[in-house]
């Protein structure tokens, strides 16, 4: 397995402001993800998390500020300089967007085009690592929710993107399945030294997966650090509530 193209993987948003119409949804927002780092972007619903990903992907441009990938300026002051298809990013959404008319295998190969044969070995490796062996010829409709999510992550990894963006990928799954998949994600990201932005509103997910947690509220960065940092000095009521919920569930489980 080849390692990720490291220096190329840095993701940086600098002083980003973004509006939908007259409504400002990101204000002076900054984020740097180092190559090989897994950052959990945590915030309540409507805080601007998905918008951050849209700007990184190039689906929209920040009104002010810039987005850089591996040092290259890809969006700046209202302009998308490098289009999404040339950014070499992979994305996993909550509603998976697998092709329903294609088998598991064909879904995995979809983004590879003519390069498919070169990647056959990696497709097969991911299929077996993700417990999808025997399901290659199945269609998404014939899989469970957890299996579909495994196909989605396999599809992201098979492209060997410079960075992987995940937008609340586990929100629709039950707790046991969630824990299982989180462990698998962590393992795969560590092995590949993947550069990852993992969006969630769940502090437990953020803490289990992220090297660092970045908290966004109302379009602004509120706090960043490890779970211990958030615990010791929660910078907002939202963080404080999440921290308290976490220790409460931890206690009630023992
Ligand atoms: P999150 O992912 O944290 O839930 P979003 O980034 O999706 O938040 O949305 C941030 C804010 O922008 C929300 O208030 C949302 O209602 C608003 N918003 C999102 N998409 C659009 C859109 N296409 N048009 C107008 N407002 C939008
Ligand atoms: Mg969202």
Number of helices: 8
CATH topology of the largest domain: Rossmann fold
CATH architecture of the largest domain: 3-Layer(aba) Sandwich
> Secondary-structure element sequence?
EEEHEEEEHHHEHEHEEHH
Question: For this structure, what is the CATH homologous superfamily of the largest domain?
Answer: P-loop containing nucleotide triphosphate hydrolases
Q: Which CATH class of the largest domain?
A: Alpha Beta
Main sheet record? 6 strands, mixed
Helix content: 25-40%
- Alpha carbon gap, first and last residue: 40 Å
Low-confidence stretches: none
Describe this structure in words.
The chain has helices at 49-57, 104-109, 116-129, 145-158, 175-192, 203-209, 227-232, 237-253, and strands at residues 11-20, 23-33, 38-42, 64-69, 72-76, 79-80, 89-92, 163-167, 196-200, 212-217, 220-225. It has a six-stranded mixed sheet, with helices on both faces. A five-stranded antiparallel sheet has the order 2-1-4-5-6, covered by helices on one side. Helices cover 36% and strands 26% of the residues. β10 and β11 form a beta hairpin. The protein has eight helices and eleven strands. It is α/β, with parallel strands linked by helices and 254 residues long. The chain folds into two domains: 1-87 and 173-254, P-loop containing nucleotide triphosphate hydrolases (Rossmann fold), CATH 3.40.50; 89-160, no CATH class. Magnesium ion is lined by residues 49-50, 167.
């Amino acid at each position: 397995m080849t390692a990720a193209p490291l220096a190329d993987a840095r993701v940086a948003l600098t002083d980003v402001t973004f509006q939908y119409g007259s409504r400002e949804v990101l204000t002076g927002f900054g984020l740097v993800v180092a190559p090989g780092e897994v950052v959990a972007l945590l915030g309540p619903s409507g805080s601007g998390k998905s918008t951050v990903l849209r700007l990184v992907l190039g689906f929209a441009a920040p009104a002010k500020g810039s987005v850089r990938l591996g040092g290259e300026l890809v969006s700046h002051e209202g302009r998308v300089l490098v289009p999404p298809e040339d950014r070499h990013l992979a994305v996993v959404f909550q509603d998976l967007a697998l092709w329903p008319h294609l088998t598991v295998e064909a879904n995995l190969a979809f983004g590879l085009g003519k390069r498919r044969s070169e990647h056959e070995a990696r497709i097969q490796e991911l299929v077996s690592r993700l417990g999808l062996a025997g399901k290659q010829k199945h269609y998404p409709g014939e899989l469970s929710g957890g299996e579909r999510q495994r196909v989605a992550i396999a599809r992201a990894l098979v492209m060997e993107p410079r960075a992987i963006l995940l937008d609340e990928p586990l929100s629709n799954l039950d707790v046991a399945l969630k824990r299982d998949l989180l462990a698998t994600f962590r393992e795969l990201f560590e092995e590949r030294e993947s550069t990852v932005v993992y969006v969630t509103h769940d502090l437990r997910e953020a803490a289990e997966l992220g090297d660092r947690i970045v908290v966004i509220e109302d379009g602004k960065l509120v706090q960043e650090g490890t779970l211990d940092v958030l615990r010791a000095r929660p910078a907002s009521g939202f963080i404080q509530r999440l921290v308290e919920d976490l220790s409460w569930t931890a206690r009630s489980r023992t």
